[in-house]
Amino acid sequence: MIASGITTSGRAIPSYRANGIKVLWLFAMVAGLGLLLTLSVAVGTRYVGWADIMAALGGKVDSIDQAAVAVRIPRTLLAGLAGASLGLAGAIMQGVTRNPLADPGILGVNLGASLAVVIGVAWFNIASADAYIWTAVLGAGVSAVFVYTIGSLGRGGATPLKLALAGVATSVAFSSMVLAVVLPRADIAGGIRSWQVGGVGGVTFSAIAHALPFLVAGFALCLISARKLNSLALGDELAAGLGERVAVARAVAAFGAILLCGATTAICGPIGFVGLVVPHICRLLVGVDHRWLLPFSALAGACLLLAADIVGRIIARPNELEVGIVTAFVGAPFFIWIVRRQRVRDL
Which Gene3D superfamilies does this UniProt record tie to the protein (predicted)? Predict the structure, then answer.
């Protein structure tokens, strides 16, 4: 019988049993997502009864309580979509680079998108949602290529440590450039600084609709890359021997992740650490097979960002903490733990 996993005691797990465990985790993840979606609509800085919640879900807005729920609905949808996008993008970036430290925030992709949007607003007066998204996607792509190029220089090529250092240095540089662009412009400084924290509040269905084509395209490109990423995990030479076009496979998967990061950053601002934390947790649940890992990373990313948004609403009542602050509190210690692990050198 073919074994597809190993227990902590070193014994092989039969394939049918391993797949059964994965299916159970899938049902648990979907149930958790449903619960968090419900809580996100029901919980906020203002208490709302279930009668008003059901009325608002039905499209009725005749009171302040129902209006509060109506505002939470697009916010909940965006938190789920953004979390799924960032979780999936993180898994793709770790698979493409074979780097356990890869993450849209750590590799500077989010800050590249952020800098591009800030320059577009300050110097070219972009204002439409489509212009924001296209600009963010372009900035994310340029930043990803730049970081990978810098991390590939010298001996050993693009090692995890070199990519992480190049990404962190690029993020710091881009963050300083954002400040340099924003400081002379008092008319946009307040809005830009609020957006840069990273949050899902105040969104409308219209804004989500503008980003949806980019997100759908990004999800499709990432998910169809699962088998190719499994081949790339074996090494470039072996993958090429199996018939894979290595450069094309990497480019397609990376482009999907860039679409997800750019569109999400344009709407929410740069939200860090979701793409780092989620894939590592999912590997503990379903292993390294990208056919399972990618969908699980999307679901777990949605759960994480929804939970972070709910915590941000209730932890500082009557005020709120933006979701980007909450994820930073969770992700920063996790990043330190990953760096300190001696065994994590490649996937």
Answer: ABC transporter involved in vitamin B12 uptake, BtuC
N-terminal to C-terminal alpha carbon distance within the chain: 26
DSSP 11: P
Q: Tell me the pLDDT tens digit for each residue of 79-116.
A: 999 999 999 999 999 998 888 878 888 888 999 999 99
Beta pairing partners, 12? 6
Tokens linked to 168: 């962190």
Q: Which two tokens stand for residue 211?
A: 């980003």
Closest by Cα among 102, 63, 28, 91 to 282 = 91
Q: How far is CA 111 from CA 17, 117, 143, 197, 222, in A?
A: 42, 10, 8, 11, 21
Inter-CA distances, 7 with 11, 17, 287, Å: 5, 12, 12
Residue 215 and residue 248: Cα distance in Å, rounded? 21
Helices vs strands, H then E, count in the chain: 14, 2
Q: Which residues contact 280 (CB under 8 A, 6 or more apart)?
A: 100, 334, 338
DSSP secondary structure, 104-164, as one string: TTTTTHHHHHHHHHHHHHHHH---SHHHHHHHHHHHHHHHHHHHHHHHHSSTTSS-HHHHH
Determine the pLDDT at residue 4.
47
Pairing type for strands 3-6 and 12-14 reads: antiparallel
How confident is the model over 143-162, as pLDDT tens digits? 999 998 888 887 767 677 78
For residue 14, list its beta bridge partners: 3
Q: Can you name the CATH fold of 78-340?
A: ABC transporter involved in vitamin B12 uptake, BtuC (1.10.3470)
Rounded Cα distance, 51 and 194, in Å? 34
Give the amino acid at 172: V
Q: What are the extents of the domains in the chain?
A: 78-340
The one-letter code for the residue type at 18 is: A
Give the residue carrying structure tokens 């915590």. 311
